[in-house]
């Protein structure tokens, strides 16, 4: 049995704290060295140039997350789908975006900056929490240290296979390169929102282990709160968390099983209603298509999972069965076996269910590394061991150096967003091309006709309407442009603003229809209804 003294943070030693601190330093250094910044202040006084957001990769997804925070900034407790202009129901509730929006409103900082700062705190905390989880499982301080470093920087073998395989970087790409939810290191660098959800899950796992051991009312209450919070932030992680915890309880016997089923029941009582609410939201018209796309978003091969997890797999297998640990390691063992079976053997389409799996995988792999390290006696064996250990980190290094780059916003669109926001309209309706729709909801509480690729229902048909109306130009879609289509589109959508490139035919159509210019910045025209 692990004692509380063994769980004290100072007893973990310097490697754990070093991993957490270095992770934050690396993320900050990379953001500022590449010009991304933290995105705390988004300004474009003259409407020219570009504006740094602090988000390193996948800005479209991050803009979708920020769209909810922008609505909260305007006082909304729940939000609409900003990328479906016909959605009138505020039914989506996410406590993180509510906090981010309100903090941004009170401090004057941009929502992107607030979320980025929270992500750095969450990344730091997650590394420490993973180490404590390892210790709570009865593992050694060495195993906890390994788990912390693997959580912070561990990756698969995509960089290695790309370097040695014919065809270069496009050959043998694993999920550590192609699917950024896979390992914590890429989550920390790419998705500020998911970094926070991963931290909450780590905290929930730690409290669940405490509750399994103590059965105290405080631990049960905290577990219920964290379970509900995790499910309300992002629903994917809670399924395997709750399901494998339930299996762990069933594998017990007698009074032990009864106590563990109480823990599982407490977690389920908090999680299931939240998941049911989320399912109801996903069945509503504005959210149905998005939910169906994202749950089975990517077709990933078995080899991609093997390459993407890389050295985690053999290390985790060793960690499942060898080294110091208490009986609760069986929970993580079940989690790993079930998840790897789903992903590699059955190759399920619902790959989002793997979200959060990086935490138990890192703990088990950390145990495996510690076990192997104890058997390295000679200097030669230790050198070989260091070489093998280096294979845990090459893709992370490759992504930071060669792939992740700062994503910026067009200064003209930033200025347009500021002008729209100054109107104090809590939900302005904006009509513009897809590029406009991708950005504006992250900068103001606007609803757009076309934006995010999966959150805009029937996006291809909507883009075709934009092209026919002369609002968007696409060299690959040669469709006729007619004034009648523009008039019909404006009449049916009833937008408050048009955001158009100066060169598109719709500018002339809008002027003829009596729309008034509010300004031109960096080639973008902002028009409002009225003469």
In summary, what is this structure?
The chain has helices at 14-33, 59-73, 95-107, 111-136, 141-153, 158-164, 175-178, 184-190, 192-214, 217-233, 236-250, 254-282, 285-295, 302-309, 312-321, 329-345, 358-374, 379-390, 394-403, 411-421, 434-439, 459-468, 483-493, 506-512; strands at 50-52, 408-410, 429-432, 447-448, 497-501, 516-521, 524-528. It is mostly helical and 531 residues long.
Name the features.
5-stranded mixed β-sheet; single chain; mainly alpha; 7 strands; 24 helices; 531 residues; two-stranded antiparallel sheet
Kindly describe this structure.
The chain is mostly helical and 531 residues long. The protein has 24 helices and seven strands. It has helices at residues 14-33, 59-73, 95-107, 111-136, 141-153, 158-164, 175-178, 184-190, 192-214, 217-233, 236-250, 254-282, 285-295, 302-309, 312-321, 329-345, 358-374, 379-390, 394-403, 411-421, 434-439, 459-468, 483-493, 506-512; strands at residues 50-52, 408-410, 429-432, 447-448, 497-501, 516-521, 524-528. The strands form two sheets. It has a five-stranded mixed sheet with strand order 4-3-5-7-6, sandwiched between helices. A two-stranded antiparallel sheet has the order 1-2. The longest helix has 29 residues, at 254-282. It is globular and about 80 Å long. The termini are far apart. 53% of the residues are buried.
Give the SSE map.
Blueprint: H1 14-33, E1 50-52, H2 59-73, H3 95-107, H4 111-136, H5 141-153, H6 158-164, H7 175-178, H8 184-190, H9 192-214, H10 217-233, H11 236-250, H12 254-282, H13 285-295, H14 302-309, H15 312-321, H16 329-345, H17 358-374, H18 379-390, H19 394-403, E2 408-410, H20 411-421, E3 429-432, H21 434-439, E4 447-448, H22 459-468, H23 483-493, E5 497-501, H24 506-512, E6 516-521, E7 524-528
Helix pairs in contact: 1-4, 1-5, 2-3, 3-4, 4-5, 4-9, 4-17, 5-8, 5-17, 8-9, 9-10, 10-12, 11-12, 11-16, 15-17, 16-17
